[in-house]
Amino acid sequence: MTVRVGLGYDVHRFVKGRKLFLGGVEIPYTYGLEGHSDADAVLHSLCDAIIGALAKGDIGEHFPNTDPKYKDIQSTKLLEKVIALMKEERFSIGNIDLMILAQEPQIKQFKQKMVETIAGICGVDTTSVNVKATTNEGMGFVGRKEGVACYATVSLRPEDTMTEKRGGR
Q1: Is 80 exposed, middle or buried (0-12, 13-18, 19+ CB in 10 A)?
Q2: Global pTM?
């Protein structure tokens, strides 16, 4: 069995007048993230990791920020579309590991809800999803509280076609 691994990264700057969404969860904060969609950097990095593991390009190719149909779209909808693509390609998720970089807001109290939301969309058990968060110790754009970044790693495994051919045994 061939396991595929994908790496995703996304970053968005803080802006006033928008809600903050991370990992599909609305987080109370003074600022939201700037972007064409809801700018959920966590879900964008996860989408990119899955698309990468499938060797199907990147999130910008699938959901261009020049396309008005993606304006202000919830990133949960984008992840649903990526999961549908993954299933069409006959893969399933092995595990997801996410690293959120944010000086503020503190993510700790929202991590479990993110895990549950992501697991639900991806159709996996919560034990297959991990969310970590760290600050940048005051360094760089994250440390200056200018925005949020996220790294995502995902493993995909091919669906067992032999089981289907044998009648599900």
Answers
A1: middle
A2: 0.93
